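$ ./design --mode recover --in tokens.txt
reading tokens...
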């Protein structure tokens, strides 16, 4: 035991962790597995203690013949004696540099962060408040980490403050990533979605065992950010996840985004992979199971964007039930959602750092008119690629041509009308990119979910005040992932001694933790402790809570409808296919296009000032 405590102390000192070791937490007996120890930690900034139980296996190691297979949970890993629950187990296979690149906040907080990796990685961590268990037991929140399905680790997400301060149990779980988690050869032998099936296994473990830790298996909330939020959405649609949770929170990502389902030329990728690892294509899957994990990642981990797939096609032979029977949008439209209350949201400037990284001198001089138009042209061109909105039409028709200039002019009319100032164009581009990718898809998802279950939508606009955490450019407020320090209570982490968090940041974190756990406990984010009432999102009267220094319930931006409803019509009109470009033998004229697009766009974009615009036209 002394050796394990030494390891824990070394881990804390290396990671910049927040905890101060006091004593062992009470041991817990886990059914069919054994007894685990835990650690009690003190959180001096909030005056509470938490018990944490780390590195608990929820499936057999996914190695050898279990690589590219559903997690094996029968039997669960078992042990004799008392298992050491004081240290994190290795993270799943990935590129450590990618982990750093995708986590600006963590890179700023813990620049020397190091993680261990192994293919044997199916472990979860349980954080709970110290002390007696309430009669109704603690609500449970299960976290799916972000990382674009290629990177991430549960060990980054210390839930001690969230659990202890809010009196909830938080479970952070690993799941297989990149080629290990999402390899598919489009057959029943390797149908894909292994990482998602790992999450199902973790939810099963929670349902069967969380009561041993004081949690309620009837009060489970799944929550995630980025690709973790996509996972949340996929579980709300999967028949394999039905009944395993009661609430769902999607933050800065959702299942209707383009990244939710991976699309690539499967045969081309598999041929390349076979060449890289010197395997025959017709025996590739079996051959891959015999390759050392590090070599497999090196040769195939970044070969394509591995991610979720509709596995029902590969499993049409009925060998087992699919995780995802169809495309998310189709399932939602067919009322295929699992029963669960929803909280869905995004950040005001999700795409700000994408622009920051893409455009030179964007901070100092903004975005020129030419660059603004080129960025939109690139966006429109991507609609024709796999996963783009026009990809299905292109696949089903021959000799289709997109009038890119027509779509470009429509979007510019919406976002660049009479705007030439580089700073304004910079803001307009971030706004359109954010609302296209995040806002409109979150809005569409809320429309679907609100028909079946209580739904709450938010837009996070708060700008981090504590500059020692991350120096945020003046023109950026709430970029991608910037809500996470507040949800996870980082201003109250004890061992971040070099950071003097502002009182405003601490208050914002208090509010965010209260809202998230109110939702987990009551299915209502402002049920307790708030004077502002967060009204449910309803299709006939949609309301969005703006999360800033002052909370403000408002109606959604018109931008959401523009991208969700109007933009697809623009693309359809601009897509000219052989059998669709004529009406009674005559080509659609430019004047017809004007009436189809620009006249409604005037009414849509500028309903109040239409007379002025008509005169200027």
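writing sequence...
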């Amino acid at each position: 035991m002394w050796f394990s405590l030494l390891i824990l102390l070394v881990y804390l000192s290396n990671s910049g962790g927040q905890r101060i070791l006091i004593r062992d937490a009470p041991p817990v007996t886990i059914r069919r597995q054994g007894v685990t120890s835990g650690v009690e930690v003190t959180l001096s900034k909030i005056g509470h203690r938490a018990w944490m139980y780390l590195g608990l296996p929820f499936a057999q190691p996914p190695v050898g013949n279990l690589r590219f297979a559903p997690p094996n949970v029968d039997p669960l890993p078992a042990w004799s004696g008392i298992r050491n629950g004081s240290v994190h187990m290795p993270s799943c296979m990935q590129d450590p540099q990618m982990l750093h690149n995708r986590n600006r906040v963590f890179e700023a907080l813990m620049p020397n962060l190091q993680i261990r990796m192994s293919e044997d990685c199916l472990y979860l961590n349980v954080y709970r408040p110290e002390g007696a268990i309430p009669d109704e037991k603690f609500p449970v929140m299960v976290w799916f980490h972000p990382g674009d399905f290629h990177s991430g680790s549960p060990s980054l997400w210390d839930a001690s403050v969230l659990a202890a301060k809010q009196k909830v149990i938080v479970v952070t779980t690993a799941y297989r990533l990149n080629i290990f988690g999402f390899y598919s050869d489009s057959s029943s032998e390797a149908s894909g979605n292994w990482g998602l099936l790992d999450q199902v296994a973790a939810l099963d473990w929670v349902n069967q065992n969380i009561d041993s830790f004081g949690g309620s298996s009837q009060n489970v909330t799944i929550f995630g950010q980025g690709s973790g939020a996509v996972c949340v959405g996929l579980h709300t649609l999967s028949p394999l996840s039905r009944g395993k949770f009661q609430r769902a929170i999607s933050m800065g990502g959702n299942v209707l985004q383009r990244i939710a389902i991976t699309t690539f030329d499967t045969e081309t990728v598999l041929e390349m992979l076979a060449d890289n690892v010197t395997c025959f294509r017709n025996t590739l899957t079996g051959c891959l199971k015999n390759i050392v994990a590090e070599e497999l990642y090196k040769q195939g981990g970044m070969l394509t964007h591995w991610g979720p797939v509709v596995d029902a096609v590969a499993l049409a032979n009925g060998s087992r039930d699919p995780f995802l029977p169809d495309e998310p949008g189709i399932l939602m439209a067919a009322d295929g959602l699992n029963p669960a209350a929803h909280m869905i949201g995004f950040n005001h400037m999700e795409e700000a750092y994408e622009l920051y990284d893409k455009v030179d001198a964007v901070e100092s001089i903004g975005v020129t008119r030419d660059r603004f138009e080129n960025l939109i042209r690139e966006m429109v061109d991507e609609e024709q690629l796999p996963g783009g909105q026009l990809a299905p039409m292109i696949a089903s028709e021959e000799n289709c041509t997109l009038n890119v200039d027509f779509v470009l002019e429509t979007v510019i009319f919406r976002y660049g009308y009479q705007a030439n100032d580089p700073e304004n164009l910079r803001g307009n581009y971030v706004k359109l990119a954010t609302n296209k990718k995040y806002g409109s898809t979150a809005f569409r998802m809320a429309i679907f979910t609100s028909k079946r279950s209580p739904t709450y939508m938010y837009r996070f606009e708060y700008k981090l005040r504590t500059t020692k955490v991350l120096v945020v450019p003046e023109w950026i407020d709430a970029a991608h992932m910037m809500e996470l320090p507040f949800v996870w209570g980082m201003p109250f982490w004890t061992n971040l001694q070099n950071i003097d968090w502002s009182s405003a940041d601490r208050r914002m974190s208090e509010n965010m933790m209260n809202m998230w756990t109110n939702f987990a406990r009551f299915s209502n984010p402002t049920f307790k402790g708030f004077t502002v009432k967060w009204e449910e999102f309803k299709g006939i009267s949609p309301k969005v809570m703006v999360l800033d220094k002052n909370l403000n319930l408002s109606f959604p931006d018109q931008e959401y409808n523009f991208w969700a409803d109007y933009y697809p019509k623009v693309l359809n009109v601009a897509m000219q296919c052989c059998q669709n470009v004529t009406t009674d033998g005559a080509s659609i004229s430019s004047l017809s296009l004007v009436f189809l697009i620009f006249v409604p766009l005037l009414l849509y974009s500028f309903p109040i000032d239409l007379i002025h615009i008509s005169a200027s036209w």
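exit 0
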